[in-house]
Amino acid sequence: MAEIKINEVDRESSSDKVEKILQGAMQEFLAHGYAGTSMDRVAVAAGVSKATVYSHFQDKEGLFKVLIEQLARKRFEIVFGTQPLEGEPHIVLRELLAKALAQMLNDKEFQAFQRVLIGESARFPELSQLFLSYLAKPGRDIISQYLASHPELNIPDPEAIVWILMGSIVHLVIAQEIMHGKDIMPMESDRVIDALTHLIVNCAK
What we know:
By secondary structure, the protein is mainly α. The protein has two domains: 57 residues, Arc Repressor Mutant, subunit A (Orthogonal Bundle), CATH 1.10.10; 141 residues, Tetracycline Repressor, domain 2, CATH 1.10.357. Helices cover 76% and strands 0% of the residues. The chain contains nine helices and no strands. The longest helix is centred in the first third of the chain and has 31 residues. The termini are far apart. The N terminus is likely disordered.
């Protein structure tokens, strides 16, 4: 019985250390970028030894990949939930776009991480590709399948339509938040969501 309790404590301690490492890593990557972050910096930020960091993560790339996967999974669940898309298109699409845009506009950590990925994409394209694989591509596939399952919308190319939807909200976030252009290019998110929903639903008319 004592051994079981010790093992449970060990597992809990290990889990706590992993979480501290991930938090420390996020802090360092956001502050110094991918290239400027070292495992030494991560260890100091996490309050653990460098040996502890390496006992859980083989290298910096592996650590960054885990952060990408964790970040993407969390944001994906916020927007899409765990159930398939069902319901009337004008309701489903508006709710989905509202969730996606609100999450991207209000999550400062997500925006900061995007800046790092975009800034490092020329030197480390595989990291940006990984982010797209975990978040953008699954989202595109789910929405494309939903649109294709509603022939009454009369959409000849659902996948291309999803590119337009995604491109519109991503551009709004980049222009207003990433590039600090709210005053230069003001636009309320509800107006963009209403316009996109109107365009999609009215294809059937």
